[in-house]
Specification:
Elements lengths: L3 H18 L6 H25 L11 H16 L4 H17 L4 H11 L4 H20 L5 H16 L7 H11 L5 E4 L6 E4 L1 H7 L4 H10 L2
Antiparallel strand pairs: 1-2
Helix pairs in contact: 1-2, 1-3, 2-3, 2-4, 3-4, 3-5, 4-5, 4-10, 6-7, 6-8
């Protein structure tokens, strides 16, 4: 089976998580809570394996320790109630690390803290901004960073208002909330604040294409 190493790590980690979540005594509330945790962990396992299946490279035994730490952090997010989209995003980060042969638990843990609490509208905006940033960079010949920021911002706003956000105020509120992650920066100098992806977001994009994750999540609904 492809990536049998990950399957074995997941099985062990899920077992540990279920044991830790088990509430003795057999009371109705305890049984119900245990069932909720079991359902979350099973859904998380399926998402993790489906994202890993999008790549062509397998783990090797030398990557076991780092991968185990990543799997346990991922399942912790599932237990804490992270949404399916957020779990898919985290799983895609790991799949990107496998693809790029850069499996580093510290890096994953850092991204997990940034991504696990994002709302869906924030993820949509983040993916849209990065797509247009990549697009504008390809076109960019003879114009400066000011032009870059204004072009990215304008294209994102046109794409998302009113399709995703009701108006400029709604767009700015969500973009402003993303500043807490460091994945987006706000620039002044125009009639309004403009928001563009940060260098940190560009680094994350080397591992995972956010809009691709959104599309796969939508397809599974």
């Amino acid at each position: 089976m492809k990536n049998q190493l990950v399957v074995s790590i997941l099985a062990a980690a899920v077992g540990d998580a279920l044991s830790a979540a088990f509430i003795p005594g057999g009371n109705v509330a305890g049984v119900a809570i245990s069932k909720v945790f079991a359902k979350r962990l099973e859904a998380a396992r399926e998402i993790f394996l489906s994202e890993l299946a999008t790549g062509e490279k397998n783990l090797n035994s030398a990557e076991f320790e780092e991968s185990a730490a990543i799997v346990y952090r991922y399942l912790k997010a599932a237990q804490e109630g992270a949404a399916r989209l957020n779990l898919r995003l985290l799983a895609a980060v790991f799949a990107g690390q496998v693809r790029e042969r850069t499996i580093v638990a510290d890096e994953f843990l850092y991204y997990a803290d940034l991504l696990s609490s994002l709302r869906r509208d924030e993820i949509i905006l983040l993916g849209t901004l990065e797509r247009f940033a990549v697009e504008v960079r390809r076109e960019q010949i003879g114009f400066d960073n000011t032009d870059f920021a204004s072009r990215v911002s304008e294209r994102a706003r046109c794409a998302l208002i009113p399709a995703q956000f009701q108006d400029e105020e709604h767009y700015a509120a969500v973009a402003g909330a993303l500043l807490r992650t460091g994945l987006v920066v706000g620039l002044s100098g125009w009639n309004t604040m403009v928001f563009i992806p940060s260098k940190l977001m560009a680094e994350l994009n080397q591992l995972v294409e956010v809009e691709g994750v959104l599309q796969r999540d939508q397809a599974m609904q």
